[in-house]
Every structure is written in C-alpha cells, then in structure tokens.
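Q: Tetratricopeptide repeat protein, please. Structure only.
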Amino acid sequence: MIGNERRGLKLTEKTLKDRERVLGYLHPDTILTRNNFAAALLQTGNRTVAKHLFIQNLAECKDVLGPNHPLTRATETVLSLLR
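A: Structure for Tetratricopeptide repeat protein:
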C-alpha cells in the first residue's frame, strides 16, 4: 500500500509539472491538479507541506475560480480541518 501511495504522489507531481508547463500556472486544470497533489502529500504524511500548498492554492482558487467555486469551497474545508 505504501508503495502505491508514493507512486501516486510521484505521478501526481509529474502531472502537475506537465500542466504548469503546458497549460500555465493559473489554468483551472492546473489549480485542480495542485490541490490533488496537496491531497496526495497529506495522504503520505507530509502534512506541513500539504497545508502550505493548500493555503497557496486557496488564494489562486479565489482569484481564478471565484470565492463560491466548488474547488475553492473544498480547499477552504480541507484547510479548516488542518488548522
């Protein structure tokens, strides 16, 4: 199981880098992938790094997607649980 989590983390990180390069840092799909990467970090025990990434991504969600977008709301919920 641990091996699968680490592999998933690496694949998610690669996908994020690819989307940042191809779509741009603030593209909605890139923002979603960044949230997925933060969630994968959390799953593998990297709580501090994940929390930092969720905080950073929340600002981007609000700016790009708006404060009422489902991803913005989901990110706020995750952060409220991490505090």
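A: Brief note, in case it's useful. Residues 2-82 form one domain.
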